[in-house]
Amino acid sequence: MINSTILVFKFVGVVFVAVGNAINQKVASMIHRYRYNPVDSPKNIVIIGASFAGYHTAKLLANSVPTGYQVVVIEKSSHFQFTWVFPRFSVVNGHEHKAFIPYGPYFKGAPKGSWRMIQDTVQEVGPRTILLQSGVKLDYEFLVLATGSHASSPSRLNVNEKNEGIKALQNLQNRIRNANDMVVVGGGPAGVELATDVKSVNPHKNVTLVHSRKTLLNNFGTKVHDVALEALEGLGVRVILGERIQTHGKDDASVVLGTGAAIPCDLLVRCTGQKAASDIIAELCPDAVSPSGGFVKVKSSLQIADDRFSNIYAAGDIVASTGPKNARSAIRQAEFVSNNILRAIQGQSLTMYHSNMLMEGGIELTLGLDKNAVYLTDGLRDMLLTSKSKEIALKSESCWKMMGATPFLDEVWEAAQ
Question: Which one is predicted more confidently, 161 or 382?
Answer without folding.
Answer: 161
